[in-house]
């Protein structure tokens, strides 16, 4: 729709009617209940949702309304150049910054990326080997898994965003092998974020890497099925945590936490998970971290039957699970760890510049460090300068969109 056909006004939520078109709820993606920030109100429940989220006023497009004007006068007209500044910061962004002061990384991300990539692909080969071995009835080389996790921990110590960025920069499609490794990388990142000791991060990383070992006992015809699973097939899938835990129980030198994570990574606080229907405090922090990491990677990865979501889209879906499948506090910690725009995310600024997120400012999640790729004229940027959006020099710049690098035919690994 052309801008000249848009007539925007602010309207109090109490004055909304069914049939009105909300152009902008005035909140960032994790601060409102809808999939998008615009929506035609089709029922009173839509209005109740806004009220439950504490949204007191929204932007309405009068020209797209299908009902009468608001029950009360509009709050005010919205100037043309002010539409993009109305979104409020999400709850996790407004937490006291001292709760998650960002430690100085030992080396810059662009220096660690090559080493992180080497470590990642070495561990990927291990994941391939233990998956094939388990499917053939052979034991898993636990010592090699431990060695790979130690190397991933070392990489995270040097720069914790480097390995997380690899998850976005990957250009391979072996989901059956990469998923376990990706979950380990995410879990290790959470371990660093929570300042766990090295022994706990090691157990966490091993459990995450081995969490889906039991799927080696599930027929590939079910794992790779494109259509909807039958009830019988779904029940077979739901048995994989038990299979995995039993396989690990037969091996030596596997930490008890690792076995628990393998068995319980699909448990949820509301008791809706499996295989044992645990709930509430019965779930350990390591089970929760693995479960969150598992869901995030499944949502954001390309698979046989669906295209992976962009990171912020996957995080938004996870945010809808708070206080249902996952504790609200743990979801907020997960978002704080990854960032609303994780390293490796392609973004566009209000200046017209396009760049890739280099690292996350965890005290200001909406203002990461950007490596520019195109300037505001659409010309490729040659210099390796970075824009730290929390720096006072760049406070006039804001992220307005997340882009798909595949659509622009960009290989983001070239910019690290």
- As for the CATH topology of the largest domain, it is Hypothetical protein af1432
How many domain units? 3
Q: How many helical elements?
A: 13
CATH class of the largest domain: Mainly Alpha
- Architecture of the largest domain, according to CATH? Orthogonal Bundle
List keywords for this structure.
single chain, 416 residues, alpha+beta, Hypothetical protein af1432, 3 domains, five-stranded antiparallel sheet, 10 strands, 10% strand
Describe this structure in words.
With 416 residues, the chain is of the alpha+beta class. The chain has 3 domains: 3-88, no CATH class; 105-338, Hypothetical protein af1432; 346-415, no CATH class. The chain is 38% helix and 10% strand. It contains 13 helices and 10 strands. The protein has helices at residues 44-52, 109-135, 142-158, 160-169, 175-193, 198-209, 220-223, 231-237, 240-249, 256-264, 285-300, 311-319, 328-338; strands at 8-12, 21-24, 39-40, 57-61, 76-77, 346-349, 354-359, 369-374, 387-388, 399-403. Strands 3-2-4-1-5 form a 5-stranded antiparallel β-sheet, with no helix packed on it. Helix 3 crosses helix 6 (198-209). It is globular and about 65 Å long. The model is unreliable at 68-102 (pLDDT under 50).
